[in-house]
Amino acid sequence: MSRSNLVELAKRRGYFFQSAGAYGGVSGFYTYGPQGATLKDNVEDAWRERFGVQEGHREIDAPTVMPEAVFEASGHLDTFDDMLVACPECGASHRADHLIEDNTDIEEAESFAPEEIADLVAEHDIQCPNCGTELAGEPVEEFNLMFETNIGPGDASTGYLRPETAQGIFVEFPQLAEYARNQLPFGITQIGKAYRNEISPRNSLVRTREFTQAELEHFVDPNEDEPLIERVADVELTLYPAEKQAESEETEYVTRTVREAVDEGLVHEWVAYYLGVGKQWYESIGVDMDRFRFRQHLSGELAHYAADCWDAEGEIDGDWYELAGFAYRSDYDLSKHDEYSDDDFTVFKQYDESKVVERATVDPDMSYLGPEFGGGAADVAAELELLAERDRAAFEDEAVTVSVDGEEHEIPTEKTGFAVEEVKETGEQIMPHVIEPSIGVDRAVYTVLVHAYSEDEVEGEQRTRLALDPGVAPTFVGVFPLMDKDGMGELARELTDELRAEGLAATYDDSGNIGRRYRRQDEVGTPFCVTVDYDSLEDSEGQRASERPSGDEPRGYTVTLRERDSTEQVRVPVDDLPDLLADLREGETTFSELDAPAAEQ
Ligand code: GAP
After folding, report:
1. 69: in domain
2. Has residue 72 been placed in a domain?
3. pLDDT given for residue 240 in this prediction
4. What ligand 1 atom has the least distance to the C-alpha of 163?
5. Ligand 1 binding pocket includes 445 (Cβ within 6 Å)
6. Domain hosting residue 436, numbered range
7. Beta partners for residue 453, in sequence order
8. Cα 35 to ligand 1 centre (Å)
9. What pLDDT is stored for residue 42 in this prediction?
10. How many domains does the chain have?
11. According to the model, what pLDDT value does residue 596 have?
């Protein structure tokens, strides 16, 4: 399948298209049309159900603009960079690591340093994709991907559009921990827009400048909490570990269940748990599991916050794309916000039984420190307190040395009030660790569409089909009158309303011949079509709205139900239709389990 076929269909049928086309469009921004917006909503709902409801995690909704201090603490200001090389001739900017991947056999060039990339550009005579100018010798620079903005007028403060939804969860941790009654483990989800000023957006929804992330931050006590592995123990994972990527030119996978992957130490237990959940979810929305794998990050590729990370990847036209990251973020983010902000990002963990422990304390003689250090006395006292906690032996000599603002001071030990006492402790403050499944919603939608796309022939006619899973298809059922005459249109319109009232996404169509109407629905991915025909009319004698007593529902006629993928048809009583369709949508019955198929109309 060519990607351009899908992009063409997506625009023509209202899935997605480049935004602001009337003004020439802007690279990296897309609008979802009526079909696409519903598909995306359905994918998001499925994510909420699997990662939120079924796991017992709660969702929040934080702002997309955040103050600079947040990103100073998180490290994004310093390290959230991609490698840029600019063409000296036409001025076009390119992502240097992507040029290497596109022009050589090297994969994952992101893991190289800028100097190595510059050497590779020269070694492989890489040219500007825009104008063909040699890029050898051009500097490869780090470019920060965050969009900067001003918050407020006048002396505005600097803010940034969030590059990941995650920070909106981390900065609110003290409040969120309170809602969780300070009980670990607990998980918080968020789904919303993220922004990255990508150097070269590409492949339509795959790399955009505004996109939707669905993220879960699961806060755990690393010493005590364990995932409920048995819930996903038997889920089979196609794994591509870092060592296999380094070892061989051939792509060599390791297939293991979640349980085996944990037992063999291939994947950290928490990450493995979410790989299992992730696989179930991707499968449920219609990603083809023969074109899906989990690839471990190489060490140079890890984000600044990640201790380990596995990406879910999907295959499109022979290339593999990152769909999601499943990262072990350790306590990186909470420690940083704890250090940089005024709040406490730890939780108090109560012991099962209280413990008696020795604690070293100081009670400095301020009548000595005051005259000696003036305004700096409080800082010296604070340093003494820290030193007592860290290094009791420092108080064994006659004088203790502390450093304040780079200057060393000697204090007679007798003036520090140093003592070691026994105290009863009921618990301790701990810094939770974080496991983060971070899913790109747009890439999920794109992959679902690409994997669903096919072209085949039906009764000698070419058809394009989107085999979307009934659970996410934007339109679930098309309702047609064979012709809009003799009352068939009236019955079909009534039936459409009835199905909608039952919560089924139904569309009515009476334009063109019936074969064309089927093809149209096949192309937008509608799993089922219902046709009201002359047989229905005959069965429905006296059943049209205009003929029956007011308030009475039509009863007893039959319709043709057609399945998109097999094009098979069955005749079903209209009264059974809402329940039958609901069962088909929920996967509680399959089309082949219905009565013997009728011939295609
Ligand atoms: N909080 C972790 C995080 O943001 P990431 O790997 O940078 O990790 C997670 O992003 C997911 O977000 C990716 O796997 C991808 O699906 C999606 N994503 C990232 N950048 C994107 C872009 N420019 N366009 C579309 N989706 C993107």
Report:
1. no
2. no
3. 96
4. 4
5. no
6. 1-64+146-346+431-458
7. 466
8. 23
9. 98
10. 4
11. 54
